[in-house]
Amino acid sequence: MVTGKSWARWVKAALAASALTAMVALPAGGAGATAIPTPPAPTSPTAPCDAISPIAIPCVALNKVTDAVDAECRRVGVPDALCILPLAHKVTQAARNAYLQSWVHRTAQFQYDLGNQVPLRDAQWIGTHNSFNSLSDVGALLNTLTLSHADSNQQLSLAQQLDIDVRALELDLHYVPRLELLGGKAVTVCHGQGDVGCTTEPTLATVLPEIASWLNAPGHGDQVIMLYLEDQLKGNAAAYSSTIATLDKVLRRPDGSSLIYRPNPTQHASNGCTPLPLDATRAGIRASGAQVVIVGSCAPGLSADVFDWNSTHVESGSTSGYQPYPACDATYNASVYSSKMVRYFEDSTLVSTLLNPTRPPADPEALTPLKVQSMTNCGVNLFGFDQLLPEDGRIQGTLWSWAPDQPVAGAGNCTLQGADSRWVAASCAATHPAACQASDGSWSVTPTAVTFDDAEAACAAQGASFGLPRTGDENSALHVLSDPVGGAWINYRLT
After folding, report:
1. How many other CB atoms are there within 10 angstroms of residue 287's CB atom?
2. Which of 42, 78, 276, 320 has the maximum number of C-beta atoms within 10 A of its C-beta?
3. Got the DSSP string for 438-454?
4. In which band, very low, low, confident or very high, does the pLDDT at 145 lie, cut at 50, 70 and 90?
5. Separation between Cα atoms, residue 275 and residue 52, nearest integer Å
6. Above 80 in pLDDT, residue 233?
7. Where are the alpha helices (DSSP H) in 233-272?
8. Averaged over 409-427, what is the pLDDT?
9. Residue 36 confidence (pLDDT)
10. Axis crossing angle, helix 103-114 with helix 93-100, rounded to the nearest 10
11. Nearest Cα to 170, choosing from 125, 111, 217?
12. CB burial class (10 A; 0-12, 13-18, 19+) of residue 278?
């Protein structure tokens, strides 16, 4: 049986919120609630341009201009609802506030907690690509007009991304001359081609405090984030030394203790770096007193704080060709998914569009909500979303557990995986087949329907345990078996 204070708080909040919604009744003897809608796909901000342009370049260019103007409008204090030009992304505090009260947010938090006991090779992370390259993090028109920031990957600040359930951030590090240092170099966070395009972007020392402040804010002490450092420091020893010093100084709690989950020097490989330990869990990381796992390519100069993930992860197979479970992506077979972290990212920059001048307005490599849903069901671990906004459907695409607006108050305290794969609250006295998990992780369902309280014994009779899916692909594997019998009990009791 699964328990925990954080889950209890989540359940109470969910039940309180769902009490305000219309009740969803289970059909007589039934296996599920209302049909699960596919994740929404909001209209692209460039839709009017896309309709008349055969290629993406002009529409993307116009979007970059209008986004920059909108960001400056917000920066000078104009109400955000008035700072929305045609062809720009709609960035409003109202949308973020609505998200924080939504079932999507509740379920994303629930799934994050559910994955805390799962090894890193299987755990899911909602992440952003070039997280730092945001117009909202610029703070001044001078920085907005740099080549890097004018071609932004994000609309929300780092803290705003974390607020909407992002738990994996990416920072690109360059060592470039700084105007304020009279040409002296500093580690700069910049999305450049090599160092081209990196000018007055913020330094690592000015970016990291936003992450540390969020982690040290009330209510975030149990959150673990993954920080991906893309190394563009070109092997410069001074740059590496400065990076480590900044990480060690900034990523601390008010009491001075470090937030960093550090590599064990005794586990260094022959290349001088420590591979990311895929058997580690977020729960174990938190129990060690840490909250930040830092990953990147092997650089011995960074190995005191940064895990080498070159050999432990793969990224971006065929996004355009991704298929629903169980076909998934033919680029990677099942052994890759079971032995490595699998990451997919997208790139919405004008530079990437210019490199593919004939690309149509609808980017075939974009992580659409439907692709995200398929990837989640197949076990993709890490998403690198561009231009992530709370209402755009991609976070909803990462959800595989509770059905919309579930659990419903008064429906019951036990949990049923419905015939549509999503979970609903149900009366514990009802009878359904039970989901059983063997020691090798495989699933089965009992041949007869039982009450929830009898499910453990029924699974034990099959040499298995009453099971609880903790990942999207586990839920998908169970669904293959539970769908023909109309759904199955899973081992989660609402408290």
Report:
1. 9
2. 276
3. -TTS-EEE-SS-B-GGG
4. low
5. 49
6. yes
7. 237-250
8. 96
9. 57
10. 60
11. 125
12. middle
pLDDT at 144 over 60: no
Contact between 372 and 394 (Cβ < 8 Å)? yes
As a whole number of Å, the CA-based R_g of the chain is: 23
Strands (E), 375-462: 382-384, 414-417, 423-426, 435-437, 443-445
- CA angle 283/289/292 to nearest 5° reads 75
DSSP string, 264-315: PGGG--TTSSPBP-TT-BHHHHHHTT--EEEEES--GGGTTT-EE-TTTEEE
C-beta neighbour count of 283 within 10 angstroms:
15
Place of tokens 């579930």: 406
> Residue 101 CB: number of other CB atoms within 10 A?
11
Burial of 335 (0-12, 13-18, 19+ CB in 10 A): exposed
Q: At what angle do helices 369-378 and 472-482 cross, to 10 degrees?
A: 80
Q: Residue 141: how many CA atoms within 13 Å on its side-chain side?
A: 6
First to last CA, the chain: 11
Nearest to 120, CA basis, from 4, 322, 284 = 284
Q: Is 402 exposed, middle or buried (CB count within 10 Å of its CB: 0-12, 13-18, 19+)? A: buried
443 class by beta-carbon count within 10 Å (0-12 exposed, 13-18 middle, 19+ buried): buried
Lowest mean pLDDT among 77-86, 144-153, 276-285, 382-391: 144-153
User: For all residues of the chain together, what is the average pLDDT?
Assistant: 90
In the beta sheet, which residues pair with residue 294?
Answer: 227
The alpha carbon torsion through 396, 401, 406, 411 (nearest 10 deg) reads 170
Q: According to the model, what pLDDT value does residue 37 have?
A: 61
Tokens coding 104: 């999507």
Q: Tokens standing for 379?
A: 């076990």
The dihedral sign for the CA sequence 165, 105, 79, 350: positive
pLDDT digits (tens, 9 = 90+) for 164-179: 999 999 999 999 999 8
pLDDT for 137: 61
Q: What is the mean pLDDT of residues 35-56?
A: 85
Count the neighbouring beta carbons within 10 Å of the beta carbon of residue 427: 15
Question: What are the tens digits of pLDDT across the range 440-495?
Answer: 999 999 999 999 999 999 999 999 999 999 999 999 999 999 999 999 999 999 98
For 185, the enclosing helix (H) or strand (E) is strand 185-189
Percent over 70 (pLDDT), the chain: 91
Structure tokens at 103: 């079932």
Which residues, 6+ apart, have CB-to-CB distance to 245 below 8 Å?
Answer: none
Distance, CA of 128 to CA of 338 (rounded, Å): 23
